[in-house]
């Protein structure tokens, strides 16, 4: 792993709206440069995407962009990011995704020219490779339309390039349900890391070629899936918290390959990446309950540079269309954070403390996101010589801290949860330092029909 | 004999697959459902009794514990593995018709959709409830469901979808199925699904979780 020490070592410097390496966009958003912006994410309502419905698809995205930007303008917004996470059909047939970017970019430009409202589009093609099992991560024909969408979508106005890539998901899906922490580590710190290196070299090259910004890549399909499963009481929350920590070593590879942020939403590992690499991040919390429930509604905002709603369908609510409604909610959230920032360090830290303290001991997944805990875990995440060792060290540190919180009486968890801690510690402790030793250990235990080693350069 | 049935039920309930399996720690070294089922059959225990007095009730208890938040999915999966180990020994009796399951359930995630965690849990719970489960996987086209129904015309079909843009494919699949098999019962589920949608596309039931589906299926099989 490239990073051996943290960019942010002091928890008081891990703050919302401020990143050591801010990112300035084409229309002048300075993300991480002293204020927080809203990042709105949206999707289509229930409908098919085919030739007959395409005019309707395009109408939806135009309506979403216009409604959101108009509301942002009325609320005196300082700037907005609109995230287009493409759906299968839009990536498979890149011309559809590119046209959606075109339509949205025209609206963004219109509001910029007429009213000076700064906005940018984060373009997030979905990872098509997931549609083949076992996935051909490096040789799939599906890579071609995906990269075409990245490149032509960037030229059409997708300024922040991101993805939620799925390398390693073949292993992690089953491992999550079995609470198999070794297999999760293999999925994220071996397969995920290797795939991220492959993918992000290419995405960074496209960003450079098109003059756009390489944003980031969250482990949504891994750690957020774990969080949602824990929320549904299918797996323990302590396990989901550890999956989050392990996901850091996978997601930071995008930064190692040249991504500058803003790191994507839909993955709370962003705070660790901000501490380690100093890049601005997008986070989501209570305002993302439209997409999924979470135990981190307030604490997630503690170090956010963009504040996201994750995803909402374009459906009518009493007040208006849902994306417009969520634009308003996000704007009020960031207005409060920006007011604190404007008022100075003391009010900013008071607001952050309230955001943290209101969630910290209610759930281990919230606990690990508190700035002082992020720094401590991040230090463990960079001290080893390999991604595997760092994943193990970070997760073991998190277990230590959760147990300390339990022993102090500040955090309370049922026995059903705490019973997993010694088992998980034991499993993690058995993970060797070197990747090759770990691979040798894991291969006999894994169903190798589910993944192709050569597709990961193995 | 009843002691063996009881022991097998305990193995399934606790996820004890065989003597070599380290889980659960308190049963380490003891025979699991695998060895005990073999022994029971050799000693003349009726395969029907094994299924209906040991395996199905044990899995019912497991489902109940899960519903009451007393266990997590990993424990449930281990129980399912223990049951599967027993079922291997019962296979010849299913094939000969001496033992009958409650019915056949054909399950798949609709075309265009790859999400399978919910589907897999449903498959596991339904199999544990005594049904034969045919899991067609993810991204399943309508033709595949009908092909399978050709082999099991009385089967119940389950459809899963997680996206607002793929849930509509459920309607296509149901229409396609009913075109050839108008009486086929279809259950649907997934994050964006609700009762209204189920009615709208002529599905027979929407259940929000696997346990609900098991209850509905058991009513059908009575």
What can you see in these coordinates?
The complex is a heterodimer of chains A (458) and B (222). With 458 residues, chain A is an alpha/beta fold. In chain A, 51% of the residues lie in helices and 10% in strands. Chain A has helices at residues 54-74, 88-92, 94-115, 143-155, 169-178, 181-210, 220-231, 237-256, 270-277, 322-343, 345-357, 364-367, 371-382, 387-407, 415-418, 420-429, 435-442, and strands at 18-24, 30-33, 37-41, 80-85, 119-124, 158-163, 213-217, 282-284, 306-308. In chain A, strands 7-6-5-4-3-9-8 form a seven-stranded parallel β-sheet. The longest helix of chain A has 30 residues, at 181-210. The model of chain A has no long low-confidence stretch (mean pLDDT 97). Chain B folds into two domains: 2-96, Methyltransferase, Methionine Synthase (B12-binding Domains), Chain A, domain 1 (Orthogonal Bundle); 104-221, Cobalamin-binding domain (Rossmann fold, 3-Layer(aba) Sandwich). A five-stranded parallel β-sheet of chain B has the order 2-1-3-4-5, with helices on both faces. In chain B, 55% of the residues lie in helices and 9% in strands. Chain B is an alpha/beta fold and 222 residues long. Chain B is globular, with a radius of gyration of 18 Å. Chain B contains nine helices and five strands. In chain B, helix 1 (2-14) packs across helix 4, helix 3 (47-67) packs antiparallel against helix 4 and helix 4 crosses helix 5. The model of chain B has no long low-confidence stretch (mean pLDDT 93). Chain A binds chain B through residues 43-49, 87-89, 130-131, 133, 173, 176-179, 225, 229, 233-236, 313, 416, and chain B through 69-74, 77, 112, 114, 116-117, 120-121, 138-139, 163-165, 167-169, 192, 197.
């Amino acid at each position: 792993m490239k990073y051996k020490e943290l960019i942010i070592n002091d928890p008081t410097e891990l703050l919302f709206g401020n990143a050591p390496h801010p990112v300035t966009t084409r229309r002048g958003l300075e993300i991480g440069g002293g204020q927080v912006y809203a990042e709105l994410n949206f999707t289509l309502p229930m409908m098919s995407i085919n030739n007959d419905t395409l005019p309707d698809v395009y109408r939806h995205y135009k309506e979403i962009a216009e409604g959101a930007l108009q509301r942002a303008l009325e609320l005196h917004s300082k700037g907005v990011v609109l995230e287009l996470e493409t759906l299968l059909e839009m990536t498979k047939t890149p011309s559809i995704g590119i046209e959606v970017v075109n339509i949205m970019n025209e609206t963004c430009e219109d509001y910029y020219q007429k009213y000076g409202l700064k906005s940018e589009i984060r373009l997030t093609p979905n990872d098509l490779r997931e549609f083949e099992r076992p996935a051909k991560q490096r040789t799939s024909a599906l890579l071609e339309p995906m990269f075409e969408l990245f490149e032509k979508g960037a030229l059409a106005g997708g300024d922040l390039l991101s993805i939620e890539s799925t390398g390693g998901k073949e292993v992690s899906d089953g491992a999550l349900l079995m609470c198999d922490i070794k297999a999760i580590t293999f999925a994220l710190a071996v397969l995920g890391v290797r795939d991220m290196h492959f993918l992000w070299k290419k995405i960074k090259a496209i960003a450079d070629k098109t003059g756009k910004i390489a944003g980031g890549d969250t482990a949504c399909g891994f750690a957020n899936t774990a969080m949602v499963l824990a929320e549904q009481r299918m797996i323990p929350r302590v396990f989901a918290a550890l999956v989050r920590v392990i996901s850091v070593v996978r997601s930071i590879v995008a930064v190692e390959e040249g991504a500058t942020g803003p790191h994507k939403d839909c993955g709370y590992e962003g705070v660790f990446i901000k501490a380690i690499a100093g890049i601005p991040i997008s986070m989501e919390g209570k305002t993302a309950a439209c997409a999924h429930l979470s135990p981190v509604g307030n604490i997630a905002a503690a170090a956010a540079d963009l504040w996201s709603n994750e995803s909402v369908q374009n459906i009518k609510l009493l007040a208006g269309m849902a994306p417009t409604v969520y634009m308003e909610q996000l704007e009020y959230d960031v207005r409060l954070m920006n007011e604190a920032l404007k008022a100075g360090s003391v009010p900013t830290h008071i607001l952050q403390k309230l955001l943290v303290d209101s969630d910290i001991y209610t759930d281990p997944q919230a606990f690990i996101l508190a700035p002082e805990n992020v720094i401590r875990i991040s230090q463990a995440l960079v001290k080893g010589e390999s991604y595997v060792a760092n994943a193990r060290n970070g997760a073991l540190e998190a277990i230590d801290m959760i147990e300390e919180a339990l022993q102090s009486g500040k955090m309370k968890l049922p026995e059903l949860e705490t019973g997993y801690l010694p088992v998980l510690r034991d499993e993690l402790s058995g993970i060797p330092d070197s990747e090759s030793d770990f691979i040798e250990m894991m291969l006999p235990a894994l169903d190798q029909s589910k993944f192709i080693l050569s597709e990961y350069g193995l | 004999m009843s002691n063996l049935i009881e022991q097998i039920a305990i193995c399934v309930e606790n996820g004890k697959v065989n003597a070599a399996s380290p889980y659960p720690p308190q049963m380490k070294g003891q025979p699991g459902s695998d060895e005990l089922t073999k022994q029971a059959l050799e000693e003349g225990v009726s395969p029907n009794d094994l299924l209906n007095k040991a395996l199905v009730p044990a899995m019912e208890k497991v489902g109940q514990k899960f519903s009451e938040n007393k266990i997590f999915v990993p424990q449930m999966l281990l129980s399912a593995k223990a049951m599967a180990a027993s079922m291997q020994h019962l296979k010849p009796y299913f094939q000969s018709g001496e033992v009958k399951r409650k019915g056949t359930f054909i399950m798949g995630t609709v075309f265009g959709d790859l999400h399978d965690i919910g589907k897999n849990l449903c498959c596991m719970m339904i199999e544990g409830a005594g049904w034969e489960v045919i899991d067609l996987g993810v991204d399943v086209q309508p033709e595949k469901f009908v092909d399978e129904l050709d082999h099991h015309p009385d089967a119940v079909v389950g459809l899963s979808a997680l996206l607002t843009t793929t849930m509509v494919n459920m309607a296509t699949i149901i229409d396609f199925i009913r075109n050839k098999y108008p009486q086929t019962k279809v259950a649907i589920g997934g994050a964006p699904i609700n009762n209204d949608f189920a009615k709208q596309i002529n599905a027979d039931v929407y259940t929000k979780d696997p346990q609900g589906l098991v209850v509905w299926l058991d009513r059908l099989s009575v």
